[in-house]
Specification:
Length: about 525
């Protein structure tokens, strides 16, 4: 049976490779020469060593000509995550790494056939060195540190206790990041509710609040906001301007959660365990010292310390290298100093981080053409607002939809387009693409009366919607995995979206849309 499934999947999955290999390039006869030259000029102006400008390929230039079929590998890995656990769960849990690798190979092979092996290697190195490896190292460090901290004592998952735990996690998310707060508190939440039958909703609201919206107030809270900080947005801008709408969203979700949790609590047939009389205490307190070090390493990566070396035309900067090495060192030390009893009590194993690393390895590389298409469209429209959608690249229609006829951004369209894309794309690169589309000038974007309202819409859209799917923000998948290991039957990819996101999170975004003019008045 297993061999038949593998053969069937191989036949189905090889079809996209053939389609991509014959996809060719779009007809760009209507693309203005000025737009392409402008795009090339902006890429060449970036800090790269001399060989880069002369020899290295530029996907940015090629994205204007790309076929929309290059979306297939990215869609393939997403659909695999969505449907294979539903229809062939045993196969998926045993071979999800192979499925993820397959889609990465499909993309790499097709890309090499169209653009050459050298170009493929360049983007493979660039994506993994600049994005994937720092991303995984950060998750690994936070996962290891939080696994070494255990909340002991009697903690029964009543609606009030759950409300307090979610509130604490939401507050911590902007201080230690959504990943740090989520990994720190998910186990105590699961442990205190282990006796309950109805507890899926608790994990879902945990993802909404702790793993996403709670990180809205500082650049340390959520990756999109950190990218904005790296591009010149003041550290306190999010605190003062995201504060009112974040407070509204958090109160809305906490009230909704308390009502829902109270309803399910009254339906429980299981009885809470009798308390042992043990007072609340924390084991592994030494690990709290590592959280500031992790945040310092993230901030360190924003420094301009020059280039350490060049690997296949890709700059490896000292700051990025220092961040990666420091995070690995923190992970090693934290794991070594944590008593094995604490890890065992937390049911610690490496599976959650292994699953995330394997799946996101293909997501990151297959996402490259999609982001490139969006980016080239954003640059084309910002250079010439009157350009047609077709002339703005294969995804030009998406970009054109967020501007009026005079080239001015439409805030609520920014909000909904970035929200929609963040459900399936990682919300950090989505933020970056549309940050550039809004002008890319931090000073102008922060100034009320200019485009500050657009920056606010972009920030809300990418951060708040991060809880809408398992892959929209990295902690979501890890929380899901840990919950499933604890016996919680989490919904499928689309089950999560349709049952919870569409009924709870989307109505919240609709409320924000309705009250957006009022939000602007009290914010600016």
């Amino acid at each position: 049976m297993k061999n038949k499934l593998i053969m069937l999947l191989a036949v189905i999955f090889l079809l996209p490779n053939l389609a991509l290999a014959s996809a060719g390039e779009r007809d760009t006869s209507r693309c203005t020469k000025e737009c392409i030259e402008k795009a090339q000029g902006r890429e060449a102006a970036k800090k790269k060593p001399e060989p880069y400008a002369a020899d290295a390929p530029m996907l940015y230039e090629k994205a204007m000509n790309m076929s929309i079929l290059w979306v297939i590998p990215f869609a393939g890995i997403l659909l695999s995550i969505a449907f294979l656990p539903l229809f062939v769960p045993t196969f998926w849990h045993s071979h999800y790494g192979k499925v993820s690798l397959f889609w990465g190979v499909v993309f790499f092979a097709a890309f090499s056939m169209n653009y050459g092996l050298g170009i493929s290697f360049f983007y493979l190195v660039e994506t993994y060195a600049h994005e994937y490896i720092p991303f995984i190292c950060l998750l690994l460090a936070l996962f290891t540190i939080s696994s070494g901290i255990r909340l002991k004592g009697d903690l029964v998952g009543t609606p009030v206790v759950n409300l307090i735990l979610l509130s604490i996690g939401t507050c911590l998310a902007s201080i230690m990041g959504t990943t740090g707060a989520a990994m720190l508190l998910i186990r105590p939440v699961l442990r205190s509710n282990s006796w309950r039958k109805n507890k899926v909703h608790i994990v879902v609201f945990f993802i909404f609040l702790v793993a996403n919206i709670g990180g809205s107030l500082t650049p340390l809270g959520d990756p999109p906001l950190f990218l904005g900080y790296l591009r010149g947005i003041d550290f306190t801008w999010t605190l003062f301007h995201m504060g009112p709408v974040t407070a509204f969203a958090v109160v809305f979700l906490l009230v909704f959660f308390f009502i829902m949790d109270t309803y399910y609590y009254k339906k429980e047939t299981n009885k809470p365990p009798k308390g042992s009389g043990e007072k609340l205490s924390i084991e592994g307190k030494r690990n709290f010292l590592f959280f500031p070090l992790v945040m310092a390493s993230v901030l360190f990566s924003s420094l301009d310390l020059g280039i350490a070396f060049v690997l296949y035309y890709v700059n490896i900067e000292w700051a990025s290298l220092g961040q990666i090495l420091s995070l690995l060192a923190i992970t090693f030390v934290s794991f070594k100093i944590t008593p094995k009893e604490v890890l065992a009590a937390n049911d610690f194993n490496w599976e959650p981080i292994i699953e995330v690393s394997k799946l996101f390895a293909s997501i990151f590389i297959t996402m490259v053409p999609v982001l490139a298409m969006l980016k080239v469209g954003a640059e084309a429209v910002s250079f010439d607002p009157t350009i047609s959608a077709d002339a703005a690249g294969p995804l030009g229609m998406v970009i054109k939809s967020i501007f009026d006829s005079n080239g001015n951004p439409i805030d609520l369209r920014f909000f909904w387009v970035t929200s929609s894309l963040s459900v399936f794309l990682d919300n950090a690169p989505t933020y970056l693409v549309f940050f550039q589309a809004a002008g890319g000038d931090a000073i102008e974007l922060m100034c009320p009366g200019h485009r500050a309202s657009t920056l606010l819409a972009l920030s809300i859209g990418t951060v708040f919607i991060g809880g809408c799917s398992y892959i929209a923000n990295a902690p979501n998948f890890m929380v899901k995995n840990i919950a499933e290991q604890s016996g919680v039957e989490m919904p499928s990819f689309f089950g999560y979206i349709f049952k919870y996101s569409m009924t709870i999170l989307i109505p919240l975004l609709l409320l924000i849309t309705f009250f957006y003019p009022f939000i602007l008045k009290i914010t600016f």
